[in-house]
Design a protein that fits this description.
heterodimer, A: alpha/beta, eight-stranded mixed beta sheet, four-stranded antiparallel beta sheet, 9 helices, B: alpha/beta, Rossmann fold, 12 strands
Chain lengths: ~325, ~325
């Protein structure tokens, strides 16, 4: 059984223009020690998903439904108090997009790391020692504890933020674009750190990004989301080398490569409005293979044991 | 005349206050010599703090260089007064990174694109309307009569960026500095914008200075690539030379750090350069990359500065290893 199971997650927001259908039924599993990548472009719903999993959604949420299981326990229906005491930051933690720029500028970074421990009545000495161990774990020296954020470089701050997410020994960590504010050479350092945490600490990860090449640097499996739907999931090899959904194929083809002769292509048009959602496949207006059944609701078809795709092109697989 | 723009030993220093009395210089661009040929696209690839944006701004004379010379179409514009640069403001245009903040949200598409024509007092209102429409067709925002009335909030990021391209093109410039024009645009639309720029370069004979952190896009768009580190160019060459046969240790590391969609990568750690670039207020002695360089030669690299030298035909590198 998977460590983490998300089933049919739906998130809708109430806005002055109408209801925004940010997520419309997303399902996936994450095994222990596995990194699951969620790849989507802006507006696809990937950050809503991350916030939803930790119950950090803004107030204008009109609907948040589906089921979430962690280690076999239903955590979707836990009362808020219990979710806060047992789950958020303790079993599931998160590194937010741009988090390194939200460190408290007037507080020593060490105290920012120990803050949740001190809230939980851990003695000061123990909390300090744990924070120093965390700093060392993320490749910093322990004396960073007494520094202020402005004394650290971008890469060091990002390491501090990762230490903060790890300090309560979570089973699952959600990483939302953890390197998007960093330069490529620093990004590579942080990716090496995350890989080491995954290998050595058997940490499970949900790695959210717009960059499919970056996701492939750490993820074991990938889910591709488009307009609030998971259009394809599969092993990294399946999705990168045998992509089934036309959107996945187009997204891969649009990624510039460093080597080889293929030129990147692009997807014409823009994603549909999340307020007036079309029926059927959300990608069909931009899809080169769109045909007659595409305006009908698309089921998920399994094209192999591990690969699933939400596309009518694969409809005959089930007869 | 082969070059549209020649920079010779250009330096741009900014003074910052330190404490109550002292001040120090940020050496953003610290001795760059570069020629851009007519109709050529030169890419400047560098990380944040490398000075690439400052270089783009000084190339357009949006900044005055601290020293060095800038020659545009044969005229020395290094220290020309703003009042005498009207002609340059028509010939050379910028395209900025962020299409959400670089265009005025209270103007409609027509007003945004027309504004440079109004400022330069070109054409009658009727003629300007036709020019605006033509420039919308150039960037494929068609049907142009629909787009002309729209406001920026009704457009996607890619469409907004095409509006700012149309605005840059409307004066028929000969030189465009495009500073990270696709970095805020979704991956699936990036190639569309880059190919459009490339096509305009061909059809209108525009020279480009393409500034980016993304060496993979530079490869498709540029005729030559220059790699910048802490205010200096460390390597200049053809895209094939820079990517398949990099000479400078920094370029090598930069290329090694780019993630590629290869499922085997997740099973290995990537070779990375240790540390982070030094601050431009405190540039290391000798070769400015030496504290992070695994090939640094003791007694030489921390002492002697490096200068670009032609190591192979058209391939220049600033490194003591060569």
């Amino acid at each position: 059984m998977a460590l983490f199971e998300a089933r049919d997650i739906q998130i809708h927001y109430q806005t002055s223009k109408g209801i925004v259908h940010a997520l419309n039924g997303i399902s996936f599993d994450v095994d222990k020690g596995e990194a699951f990548g969620i790849v989507g472009e802006s507006g696809s719903g990937k950050t809503s998903l991350a916030l939803g999993l930790l119950r950090l959604l803004p107030k204008n949420v009109e609907r948040y439904a589906g089921s979430l299981g962690l280690g076999g326990e239903d955590i979707m229906n836990l009362p808020e108090n219990e979710f806060r005491m047992k789950i958020r930051w303790k079993k599931i933690s998160m590194v937010f997009q741009g988090a390194m720029n939200s460190l408290n500028p007037v507080m020593r970074v060490g105290n920012q790391i120990t803050e949740p421990l001190r809230e939980g009545k851990v003695p000061k000495k123990d909390a300090h020692d744990r924070a120093v161990r965390m700093l060392e774990l993320v490749g910093l020296s322990g004396d960073i504890f007494a520094r202020y954020p402005h004394e650290l470089s971008g890469g060091m701050k990002q390491r501090v933020v990762i230490a903060m997410a790890l300090v309560q020994d979570p089973q699952l960590i959600i990483l939302d674009e953890p390197t998007s504010a960093l330069d490529v050479s620093i990004q590579a350092q942080i990716m090496n750190l995350l890989k080491r945490l995954k290998w050595e600490k058997k940490l499970s990860m949900i790695f959210i990004t717009h960059d499919i090449a970056l996701a492939s640097d750490i993820c074991d499996r990938l889910g591709v989301i488009y307009a609030g739907e998971m259009v394809e999931t599969g092993s990294l090899e399946d999705v990168l080398q045998r992509p089934k959904h036309p959107y996945t194929q187009a997204l891969l083809a649009s990624t510039p490569r460093l080597h080889g002769e293929t030129k990147p292509s692009f997807i014409p048009g823009i994603p549909p409005s999340l307020i007036a959602m079309p029926d059927g496949c959300k990608f069909r207006e931009r899809c080169p293979y769109a045909f007659e059944p595409c305006d009908k609701t698309v089921p998920v078809f399994a094209t192999s044991k591990n690969q699933k795709v939400q596309c009518w092109l694969y409809g005959d697989i089930h007869g | 005349m082969d070059n549209i723009l020649s920079l010779t030993d250009v330096k741009v220093y900014f003074q910052v206050r330190k404490g109550f009395f002292g001040s120090s210089d940020i050496r953003a661009v610290d001795g760059v010599s570069l020629e851009i040929r007519n109709g050529e696209t030169m890419a400047i690839v560098g990380e944040s703090g490398s000075g690439k944006t400052t270089l783009g701004r000084v190339a357009l004379r949006l900044l005055e260089p601290t020293s060095g010379s800038i020659v545009f179409q044969g005229k020395d514009i290094s220290h020309a007064s703003e009042g005498s640069l009207g002609w340059l403001r028509r010939q050379a245009q910028p395209i900025f990174q962020d299409p959400y903040s670089s265009i005025d949200t209270f103007m409609n598409v027509h007003q945004i694109i027309e504004e440079p024509l109004v400022i330069h007092k070109i054409g009658t209102s009727e003629e300007r309307r036709e020019t605006v429409k033509k420039s919308l067709r150039d960037v494929r925002l068609t049907p142009e009569d629909d787009f002309i009335r729209k406001y920026p909030h009704q457009l996607s990021g890619g469409q907004r960026q095409r509006v700012s391209m149309a605005r840059a093109l409307v004066l028929e410039p000969k030189f465009i500095v495009a500073d990270e024009p696709v970095s805020m645009i979704d991956a699936s639309s990036r190639a569309e914008i880059l190919f459009l720029l490339k096509e305009l370069q061909g059809s209108k004979g525009i020279s480009f200075l393409y500034i980016t952190h993304d060496i993979a896009t530079a490869r498709y768009f540029a005729d030559r690539i220059a790699v910048m580190y802490l205010g200096r160019l460390v390597e200049v060459g053809l895209p094939r030379q820079i990517i398949e046969d990099p000479l400078h240790p920094y370029t090598k590391a930069l290329i090694e750090a780019v993630p590629e969609a290869d499922p085997k990568n997740r099973l290995r750690e990537r070779k990375v350069i240790p540390g982070e670039p030094a601050s431009p207020t405190d540039i290391p002695s000798g070769c400015r990359f030496h504290p992070r360089c695994e090939y640094a030669i003791k007694g030489k690299c921390e002492r002697d500065d490096t200068y670009l030298q032609e190591e192979k035909p058209d391939h220049f590198v600033a490194c003591h290893l060569y």
